[in-house]
Amino acid sequence: MYKPRLYLDSCCFNRPFDDLSYDKVRFECEAVLDILSNCVAGMLDVFRSDVLTDELCRITRFILQVQSMVMQLFFSLQITG
User: Fewest beta carbons less than 10 Å away: which of 4, 8, 29, 46?
Assistant: First the structure.
């Protein structure tokens, strides 16, 4: 059985985390999630590239750095009653 192969760039993988209050963004998010659901179901194949992997790793590292900074700030606050 022929399965279409798709390439999704990092924007596609990040779309579900955008502001979904805009119709265009929400529709694009739903489309990406449908594509990924079809991949999990075995109806489509998504292939990746080293560039995509690098981009997603950089985004992940950035998010972890921001989370770390927020936690450091939180724990440096002095709670007063």
Answer: 4
What stretches of 1-81 adopt beta strand conformation (E)?
Answer: 5-7, 45-47
* pLDDT < 50 positions in the chain: none
Cβ-proximal residues to 20 (8 Å cutoff; 6+ apart), any chain: 26, 29
pLDDT, position 79: 59
**Predicted TM-score of the model (pTM):** 0.67
Answer whether 32's CB lies under 8 Å from 16's CB.
yes
Residue 34 phi/psi, 5-degree rounding, is -65, -45
Backbone angles phi, psi at 6, to 5 degrees: -120, 150
- Do 33 and 16 form a contact (C-beta atoms < 8 A)? yes
